[in-house]
């Protein structure tokens, strides 16, 4: 909307060009395929409200470009008629580079537009290194190991970073566990080296995008994707779009205060959620209780100790679930995403841990006629973030909802 030239505050509608209308319609068709799965032209016409002719004009160039393929005809209904041929993404269509950078490790993948992981590679680096240039070199090496030599069909590269980022500039702002990377313009540097567009975002937001298009978040309007383990991060999908904040400043949920005057966090503040719901806290408490292998304790071993009735293990198991639930309940109170998809270490706690978190979240919330919050463990394992990295590129290239 724009203001009129008369100086009044009455808005006038901005006209949409025919080219913009075509792009918008194409985005709606592709988003429907990502949300629902294979659909026939008739299905797409019904879902989008467009005519069959319009749908045909949209999908034909996408088939010719190798993005979409026609699958085998669906079974004919009892009433007869011509069998429909569902459309979906080609298994090898539009290869995209994806990177997951976290302290000490770089994972890369070549991913198709339909979410098939075609190749993977990884590199390691000293997390405390001050040589940021060597980390850029490692990212490029790991990418070169998965990207094809012929790159005319490559769409770009999406990088997910386990730390605070400036999405507009493609820069790492800070990583508490890898302080030498602060201020590194990783996106522009990698783009210059490999000759492709590069899009950079926060790890949990990319993870949420992986859930949005390829996991339990498919077709779900709002949900939260939460990473657990050495740190805590969240990617929020609200009304179908990723919430970022200015320059990507949102998502640092681990550094919201849950205990005023509590322990000092690695970020320098006190009482952050990360001080009571990450491996650092878990291992400290395991040591205090005298549990075996306390210095390397994670949720899986703790769950096994609790199941065996080891003294103190069940108490810690329940307390850890409560601490994770505390921050999740706060998110539900403020934004009410309803569905919380947990990734990382929490998944290895099994169903007993999932149900304990869900029970504690619900107990922390006042009754409301809206649906109760649900806790789910990711089914994408450790590939959600790489899939989301590819999703970053597709979102920009195809102008889909992010």
TrEMBL record:
Cited Pfam families: ROK
Protein source organism: Micromonospora echinofusca
Cross-referenced PANTHER family: N-ACETYLMANNOSAMINE KINASE, ROK (REPRESSOR, ORF, KINASE) FAMILY
Protein name according to UniProt: ROK family protein
Organism domain of life: Bacteria
Family note: Belongs to the ROK (NagC/XylR) family.
Gene3D superfamilies: 3.30.420.40, Winged helix-like DNA-binding domain superfamily/Winged helix DNA-binding domain
Cleavable signal peptide: none
InterPro entries associated with the record: ATPase_NBD (IPR043129), ROK (IPR000600), WH-like_DNA-bd_sf (IPR036388), WH_DNA-bd_sf (IPR036390)
């Amino acid at each position: 909307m724009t203001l009129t030239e008369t100086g009044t505050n009455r808005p006038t509608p901005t006209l949409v060009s025919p080219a913009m209308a075509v792009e918008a319609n194409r985005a709606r068709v592709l988003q429907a395929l990502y949300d629902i799965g294979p659909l026939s032209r008739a299905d797409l016409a019904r879902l989008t409200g467009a005519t069959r002719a319009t749908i045909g004009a949209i999908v034909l160039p996408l088939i010719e470009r190798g993005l979409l393929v026609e699958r085998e005809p669906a079974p004919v209904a009892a009433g007869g008629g011509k069998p429909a041929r569902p459309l979906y993404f080609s298994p090898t269509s539009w290869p995209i580079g994806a990177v997951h950078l976290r302290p000490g490790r770089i994972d890369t993948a070549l991913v198709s537009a339909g979410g098939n992981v075609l190749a993977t590679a990884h590199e390691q680096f000293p997390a405390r290194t001050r040589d940021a240039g060597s980390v850029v070199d490692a990212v490029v090496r790991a990418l070169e190991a998965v990207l094809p030599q012929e790159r005319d069909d490559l769409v770009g590269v999406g990088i997910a970073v386990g730390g605070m980022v400036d999405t507009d500039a493609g820069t790492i702002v800070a990583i508490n566990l890898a302080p030498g990377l602060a201020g590194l313009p990783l996106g522009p540097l990698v783009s210059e080296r490999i000759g492709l567009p590069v899009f950079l975002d926060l790890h949990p937001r990319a993870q949420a995008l992986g859930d949005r298009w390829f996991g339990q978040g498919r077709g779900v309007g709002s949900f939260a994707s939460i990473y657990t383990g050495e740190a805590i991060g969240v990617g929020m999908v609200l009304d179908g779009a990723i919430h970022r904040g200015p320059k990507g400043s949102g998502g640092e949920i681990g550094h919201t205060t849950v205990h005023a005057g509590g322990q000092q966090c690695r970020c320098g503040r006190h009482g952050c959620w990360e001080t009571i719901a990450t491996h650092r806290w878990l291992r400290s408490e395991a040591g205090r209780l005298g549990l075996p292998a306390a210095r390397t304790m994670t949720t899986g071993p703790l769950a096994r100790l609790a199941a065996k009735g080891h003294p103190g293990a069940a108490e810690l198991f329940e307390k850890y679930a409560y601490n994770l639930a505390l921050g999740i309940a706060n998110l539900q109170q403020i934004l009410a995403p309803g569905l919380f998809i947990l990734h990382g270490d929490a998944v290895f706690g099994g169903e007993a841990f999932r149900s304990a978190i869900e029970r504690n979240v619900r107990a922390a919330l006042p009754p409301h006629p809206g649906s109760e919050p649900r806790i789910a463990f990711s089914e994408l394992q450790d590939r959600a973030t790489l899939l989301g990295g590819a999703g970053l590129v597709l979102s920009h290239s195809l102008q889909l909802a992010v």
